[in-house]
Specification:
By secondary structure, the chain is α/β, with parallel strands linked by helices. It is built from five helices and four strands; from the N terminus they run βαβααβαβα. Helices cover 40% and strands 14% of the residues. The mean pLDDT is 97.
Length: 148
């Protein structure tokens, strides 16, 4: 069975595209599809923030991206919805979608949220890549558990 993972943040141009790129690459040996969406409509159709693209390239990841807005219908086929922070998780609950905070898959995480790097410098985007990389073993275990 193909396990479908969707990473969700606010605008779908920073954190969730980073998560999707990292997870898709790191889990490519499993039967998995990885996608990303945002809970807000501000950036629909736009590419990822250039700072996210650079941070991913520095870490060795490539990807293509066009921002999309999350909806219950769009997420109906997802087996695992990964929210970047508590606000994203609340927004998903409001539309009737269950999610898990992605950093719960990192047993060493000191916080449950992936901070939004949008208003900061490029180092915040690098930090997000590292945070997502730390979740890979836990997400991998969940995907295997789900049959992927």
């Amino acid at each position: 069975m193909t396990v479908r993972i969707t990473a969700v943040c606010l605008g779908n141009i920073c954190r969730s595209p980073i998560a999707a790129a990292v997870l898709a690459h790191e889990l490519s040996d499993l039967d998995v599809e990885v996608d990303s969406m945002g809970t807000g409509p501000w950036h629909i159709g736009e590419g990822a923030d250039p700072r996210a693209v650079v941070a991913l390239a520095r870490a060795g990841y490539e990807f293509e991206h066009a921002a999309r807005q999350a909806s219950k219908a769009e997420l109906a086929d997802s087996h695992l919805v990964l929210a970047m922070d508590v606000d994203n998780q609340r927004n998903l609950q409001r539309i009737g979608v269950d999610s898990v905070l992605i950093r719960t898959f990192d047993p060493e995480a000191d916080e449950v949220e992936v901070p939004d790097p949008f208003y900061g410098g490029p180092e915040g985007f690098d930090d997000v890549v590292v945070m997502i990389q730390a979740t890979v073993p836990g997400v991998r275990a969940r995907v295997v558990e789900l049959g992927g």
